[in-house]
Amino acid sequence: MLFKKMLPAAFILLSGVVGLLIGLFYSSSTIESLFNSAQVITSVLASIATVAGVVLAYFALDTWRSQLRGSHIYGQSTELLEALLTTLSIAINKKPIIGEKTFGETGGKITQLVLQLKLKQFEPVILTKITDVQSKIMDDVKDKNLISDMTISTLLSVVNELAKSLNNQFK
Questions:
Q1: The pTM is what?
Q2: pLDDT for 143-170, tens place per residue?
Q3: Any residues with CB less than 8 A from the CB of 70 and at least 6 apart, and which?
Q4: Closest of 149, 144, 151 to residue 130, by C-alpha
């Protein structure tokens, strides 16, 4: 217990002795130049830290922007996949499509999402295939009021391709 009380006193005494030795062996101009050098060094270090902080903030902002853009693309592409699956389920039912409200809404949604994703340059080859399949679906509906097996097969292939792309890009 006594040792703990004496430790601060010993530190103060040691500091005083060190100060006395510095005062005896160094002139005041030498001590002043050392303090000036220390001020210059700390000023330079502070400037470097400020520049490093700005660079780090820029990279953090860039990463955040990239992540935000990626999450937006992911959301739109999963919506597109859901709309394509809805179209596929309507097509597989083999019921007359003209007058089917869900089919029209889904087709409009697919068109809108494809255009938005094309603007963001997301998988242009797959998006072109989706547009082509949509054209085939519209031709089938105009001709037979049903979606042909060949078009259903193509639609299924495009859905699988989009799903694989989503899984690969957004692991």
A1: 0.62
A2: 888 888 898 899 999 999 999 998 888 7
A3: 170
A4: 151
